[in-house]
Design a protein that fits this description.
It comes from uncultured Microcoleus sp. This is Cyclase/dehydrase. By secondary structure, the protein is α+β, with helices and mostly antiparallel strands. It has a single domain, classed as 2-Layer Sandwich (Alpha-D-Glucose-1,6-Bisphosphate, Chain A, domain 4), CATH 3.30.530. The strands form two sheets. A seven-stranded antiparallel β-sheet has the order 1-7-6-5-4-3-2, with helices on both faces. A hairpin with a 2-residue loop joins strand 3 and strand 4. It starts with a helix and ends with a strand.
Length: 204
């Protein structure tokens, strides 16, 4: 009975640790998302929808993070994204086809910390903001949590169930990223600079 109690205790401790890790990462993403949403110019309170999804990828934390910083490779795993051009360390130009509609916008990274998080907001086009957080799940595993805030009328006029459409797309994008990075086994590159309050603090 004593051995059984010890095993049960260890199992419960492991489950609690995993639960805490997931909650911490979700809270971090929510905090960064909230910061991003505050600066989405012109968006009225309550006018936007929000989607949050999480996935565990079987690569080390630094590998997952480094690959995500390679924004111009997003079209390889993000559905509907035709092109992402990195204009400088903090600005991106996006071109996509969403529900049969061609859209373009520019986004600015507001916060970026290596192996921790990246948050952004749109500066032109339909209003959107978001954050992605990274946390070590176990040795050689990383949990990625992606949270998006978007204006339905700006992107999805032709979609009946907007929230379900975006929910499925975000989940699919994360699954494709998992396949992409796990099949490679290593990152194609990585930017390890930091951005705070939309100001580039360091870059490499």
């Amino acid at each position: 009975a004593l051995v059984g109690d010890k095993v049960t205790g260890l199992t419960n401790n492991a489950q609690n640790a995993i639960g805490k890790t997931s909650r911490d990462l979700s809270n971090r993403a929510k905090g960064l998302y909230a910061e991003s949403r505050k600066v989405v110019a012109g968006s009225a309170e309550g006018s936007n929808d929000t989607v949050e999804k999480s996935i565990v990828v079987n690569v080390p934390l630094s590998t997952a993070y480094n690959q995500w910083t390679q924004f111009e490779e997003f079209p390889q795993f993000m559905e509907g994204i035709k092109e992402v051009r990195q204009l400088d360390d903090k600005r991106l130009h996006w071109r996509a086809n969403i529900a049969g509609k061609d859209v373009e916008w520019e986004a600015e990274i507001g916060e970026q910390k290596p192996n921790k998080h990246i948050s952004w907001r749109s500066t032109t086009g339909a209003h959107n903001a978001g954050a992605v957080g990274f946390m070590e799940e176990a040795a050689g595993q990383t949990r990625i949590t992606l949270r998006l805030d978007y204006e339905p009328k700006g992107f999805f006029e032709n979609v009946g169930s907007t929230l379900g459409f975006v929910d499925n797309r975000v989940e699919g994008d994360l699954q494709r990223f998992k396949t992409f990075i796990e099949s490679r086994g290593s990152e194609s590159g990585g930017w390890r600079g930091e951005i705070h309050n939309s100001q580039v603090q360091s870059g490499s």
